[in-house]
Amino acid sequence: MAAPMIHALRPVPCLFRPLYRRISHSAGFLEAAGRRGLFKDVFPAESGPSQLSELLRSGPQTVYCGFDPTADSLHIGNLLTVLGLVHFHRAGHNIIAVIGGATGLLGDPSGRMNEREALSQEKITENIRGIRRCLERLFSNCETLVPGARPGGTVRVLNNEQWYRQRGAAEFLGSVGRHFRMGTMMSRHSVQSRLSSPEGMSLAEFVYQVFQSYDFYQLNQTHDCRIQLGGTDQLGNIMSGHDFIHRITGEEVFGITLPLITNSAGDKLGKSAGNAIWLSRDKTSPFELYQFFVRQPDGIVERFLKLFTFIPLPEIEQVMEQHGKEPEKRLPHKRLAAEVTKIVHGKEGLESAKRCTQALYNSSLEALEKMSDQELQELFREAPFAEVLLEPGTRVMDLCLKVSAIPEGARGYEMISSGGVSINHKKVTNPDEVLLLGHHILHNGLSLLRVGKKNFYIVKWLHL
Ligand SMILES: Nc1ncnc2c1ncn2[C@@H]1O[C@H](COP(=O)(O)OP(=O)(O)OP(=O)(O)O)[C@@H](O)[C@H]1O
Ligand SMILES: N[C@@H](Cc1ccc(O)cc1)C(=O)O
């Protein structure tokens, strides 16, 4: 898979700049997160950082972040916001991940040039299931595999459809809608940029911010939630929620933004840009995820170690020092890749990624032999997979013909004898050689056939 490169972040739109403040000046937990570059800004700007620090020191708080079910998996951009929640949980706070079963029907205009395609209810239900699985896996892996958390905080995954289900549209707009001022809604960056675009903006998108604000209010009332996290593109929606809650309850609530991860062209890494690195195995395998992080350029690896892992900062410093001495070993890159793969796919996923790396880049037979069908298919995603009946006396030539890897007749014969074919990373030059178990056929019942430089065929032998 051609993995997109990740680059330095674009500056946040300056429209909001006077309204929030860099988070790194606040104390304690926020300062620690600020030093990792994880939490970018806090809202409201002036009073926010000090009040928020005080609030966090006063006892466990509840923090939430939302994810719309516009795909059946989360991606690494979302991972950052999930890890933001996990940082709070590890510090003893309660966290809530909200899946936007309702908001997903509207489509958030934030950071988008055009409207999302409407999804059917069945597709949304399927996506909700996939995202829930991702979230639960991430929370569970962080809890069990990353030591050093302070116990106590709770973890919840909710679907915002549950608090809209009972409400009629007219009743909702009549009671909630009247607290929103058109002028303020129109001034949001997400609205402004879309109104001036050729496509314009639908009513569904326009009222999106009312729903996200109401979610925040709902969680404030039911779970005493006073903090919402989101990527910088979410600031407008978070500000609307803040104003709504403040107007109704008089209570101060806070927003924290996380930096947006972008590709080399400066586009947010995600679904819309079509460059997502997914967290579900069937979309991006543990091996692909691992390789994506191993391949990050030197200039970005330290920042990613701070953002995407829980490795303490002094240890990251040491790893980087070591890298200065032995850059060819790419130690920080491998550490980053291992930590993220473990968080996303667990210990087994990491082992699988390492096994695939060994099998592909180090031509390790031992690693190949331990691979499952699924791993081999993930490793050679584009490679044809064939199930072949093993008959006594099957020769190299027969195998190649059975999977249509070579043409029939003299040309195919010649391709083998001239050294163009290998089985399990070993060249086979005798077309009439009979296949042997443990040599051409691995003990896991598989053979990896290669013709030329790049044409791989995965063969699963039946009735061994
Ligand atoms: N590349 C990214 N970097 C940091 N945060 C991100 C990134 N992509 C998404 N997020 C954050 O993840 C949360 C959930 O995003 P959501 O899944 O609803 O949409 P999305 O992935 O941004 O969609 P799309 O990629 O289609 O625009 C939001 O807080 C969003 O800001
Ligand atoms: N609007 C967010 C997702 C979200 C949904 C519901 C919320 O309450 C909060 C956030 C996004 O598209 O990225």
Automatic annotation (TrEMBL):
A Pfam family it matches: tRNA-synt_1b
One GO BP annotation of this record: tRNA aminoacylation
Molecular functions per Gene Ontology: ATP binding; RNA binding; tyrosine-tRNA ligase activity
First-level EC class: ligase
Function noted in UniProt: Catalyzes the attachment of tyrosine to tRNA(Tyr) in a two-step reaction: tyrosine is first activated by ATP to form Tyr-AMP and then transferred to the acceptor end of tRNA(Tyr).
GO cellular component, one term: mitochondrion
Signal peptide span: none
Official protein name in the record: Tyrosine--tRNA ligase
Keywords (A to Z) from UniProt: Aminoacyl-tRNA synthetase, ATP-binding, Ligase, Mitochondrion, Nucleotide-binding, Protein biosynthesis, RNA-binding, Transit peptide
Reaction it catalyzes: tRNA(Tyr) + L-tyrosine + ATP = L-tyrosyl-tRNA(Tyr) + AMP + diphosphate + H(+)
Organism: Xenopus laevis (African clawed frog)
Gene name tied to this protein: LOC121401362
Family matches, as NCBIfam families: tyrS
Keyword set includes Protease: no
InterPro entries: aa-tRNA-synth_I_CS, aa-tRNA-synth_Ic, Rossmann-like_a/b/a_fold, S4_RNA-bd_sf, Tyr-tRNA-ligase, Tyr-tRNA-ligase_bac-type, Tyr-tRNA-ligase_bac_1
Its EC number(s): 6.1.1.1
Cell compartments where the protein resides: Mitochondrion matrix
Quaternary structure and interacting proteins, as annotated: Homodimer.
Family label: Belongs to the class-I aminoacyl-tRNA synthetase family.
